[in-house]
Amino acid sequence: MTEKFETVTWVHWYKQSAGHTLILIAMLRKSTSTIPTYGPGFSKSRFQITYIDNMSNLIISSTIEQDEGLYHCAYMDWTESTWTGTYLSLKENSQRISSFTVVQEPTLSNPASDTDLETLQCSVLSDSVNATCSGEPSMFWFRAISDTSYPDFIIAEGKIPENCEKTSNSQKKCSYNFTKVVKSSEGAIYYCAVAACGQILFGNGTNLVKSDQDKKTSTIRIVLVIILICLAISVTLNVIFICYR
To answer: Is the model's pLDDT at 214 over the cut of 70?
Structure first.
């Protein structure tokens, strides 16, 4: 990484990883020495800083995964300071493939009453051999009011796994349960989402359909409305007929 400037008294190099504040790599003062002063955790063995002809270079040797991030160069004189930044993206990290599979059960549920307690389960299958990142995945639940709408209502925020077991020598299964009182008249699709390795994976969804009893009730209501309309028309016609006799 190279930064060029006209006049300068101090040159500071900082590193900023995602979600973290600036960390001083090193600083160099033009008027006193060309040897930089390094911050905690950084040394000349991997981070070399040069300052030649108003140009500063930061050279990182033997890059590792943790080196990815935004690098700031701040150059300062007596009256002002100017900042520039360069993002270092490592190819190995950008090509990382998630080794997680999401399985959501059940796919269809039909609550019989307004007090039914539904338990939805979301299982995460991970390949521990090919895993490229550490830490357990986080779980989220969303609800879509209809099959044509996007899941925009958050039901539960990230949780730690409730039950984890090894299903084979290389695969691990973690299950998450979500329990909710679901009304028989509440037609909605519930989705689980897993956040892991910088990615978000969605389950196929659980469709909570309206109960048959609720459908029958709706049908009866429609029939009654039609009958009432017919009766109202009949009464109106009879009144008109009597008036014209």
So the answer is: no
